[in-house]
Write a structure and sequence with these properties.
It is built from 7 helices and 18 strands. It has a 5-stranded mixed beta sheet with strand order 1-3-2-5-4, covered by helices on one side. A 4-stranded antiparallel beta sheet has the order 9-10-11-12, with no helix packed on it. A 4-stranded antiparallel beta sheet has the order 13-14-15-16, with no helix packed on it. It starts with 9 loop residues before the first helix and ends with a strand. By secondary structure, the chain is of the alpha+beta class. Helix 2 (23-45) packs across helix 4 and helix 5 packs across helix 6 (145-154).
């Protein structure tokens, strides 16, 4: 493991983390740790680092800010908290969390089944919570300063509605570790669902701010509906729902453009029609952060996993031998909080 996050020997980290993560998950974590160190060093070496920190945090200890910048710019990270991997059930729906009381960043084990970029984002967000305790001791910057820190470090553009949501969000929660309830600031496991409509003149979105929907925004000038169905789900694993249609000649995807303002050009993801006789859904049933294609047929439920690189789906797999549809409706969503969509 990288010395960046683990000042103790690796053996100590394994002892404190009873989760037996797979080698592929360990590799994802190591890649993410290396990238986090690189991004932090680049950020703090920037001549505008202090200005950017002021945008994120309510800094009351200016000297602490100067020390943090000076040390981090040359790769000295002596204020980094411990890291612990825990089962999803302990995380209360969060992907990551930071506890000032234990000086520990907690990561859900399902997060490590996603790509290293997502792990990197969560680590940066939780480090933002840690840095807030150094720059604003005894206080807490309003909103989710961890998420804002992550966005600023990675250079993610933010719309005014997104910035307002972050600055007014309550990021406090609790996790349960070894039967002990611990107060934390967290990175949520899911983002807010927005209201989406497809009209004759294009696709419109009303963003959610957590308590209501904001004014209408036009995201496309063309109608985007499929002859077999239309869905919005994150098939690429970037945390933003993509537009998906199933037509007579296959499945097409328009990726969310990454800035929260529209969709990218059409991409063909399959050459076959993928619709079930009882229904078709797109939801993450495998827990890797990417929506899989699900169909219910007369002989059971089938799944085509997202292929992991955001370009298509893997071969068909039969998941049940029974038909699973309800007389009033059928859905796939994560109701248990383990990062995998359940059949409802």
């Amino acid at each position: 493991m990288s010395n960046f996050f683990f000042p103790e020997p690796q053996q100590s980290w394994e002892y404190n983390n009873p989760i037996n993560i797979l080698p592929v998950s360990s590799n994802v974590l190591n890649i993410a740790l290396t990238c986090v160190q690189t991004e932090l060093q680049k950020f703090f070496a920037s001549p505008t680092a202090l200005e950017k920190l002021d945008r994120v945090f309510d800094i009351t200890e200016r000297n602490a800010a100067h020390i943090l910048i000076k040390n981090s710019a040359v790769g000295i990270f002596n204020q980094i908290p411990h890291l612990q991997i825990v089962e999803d059930v302990a995380m209360n729906g969060a992907q990551g969390a930071f506890s000032q009381a234990t000086n520990t960043i907690y990561l859900s084990d399902s997060l490590l089944r996603r790509d290293s970029l997502k792990v990197q984002e969560v680590l940066l967000e939780e480090l933002g919570h840690k840095f807030d305790t150094l720059l604003n001791p005894g206080g807490d910057t309003c909103g989710d300063e961890g998420e804002l820190f992550k966005d600023v470090v990675l250079g993610f553009p933010l719309s005014q509605p997104e910035l307002l949501r972050i600055q007014t969000e309550n990021d406090f929660s609790t996790v349960v570790i070894d039967n002990q309830v611990i107060s934390v600031e967290q990175a949520q496991n899911s983002i807010l669902a927005d209201a989406i409509v497809s009209n004759d003149d294009g696709v419109y979105v009303r963003r959610s701010d957590g308590s209501k929907f904001l004014p209408n925004e036009k995201w496309t000038d063309i109608v985007y509906t499929g002859t077999k169905g239309t869905w919005f789900a994150d098939v690429t694993g970037d945390g933003k729902a993509d537009a998906i249609v199933s037509n007579d000649d296959g499945v097409y995807v328009r990726r969310a453009n990454g800035t929260g303002t529209g969709f990218l050009p059409n991409e063909k993801w399959t050459d076959i029609v993928y619709t079930g006789t009882k229904g078709t859904w797109f939801a993450d049933v495998t827990g890797d952060g990417k929506a899989d294609a699900i169909v219910s047929n007369n002989d059971g439920v089938y799944v085509r996993r997202a292929n992991g690189n955001g370009t298509g789906f893997l071969p068909n797999e039969k998941w049940t031998d029974i038909v699973y549809t309800g007389t009033k409706g059928t859905w796939f969503a994560d109701v248990t909080g383990d990062g995998k969509a359940d059949a409802i």
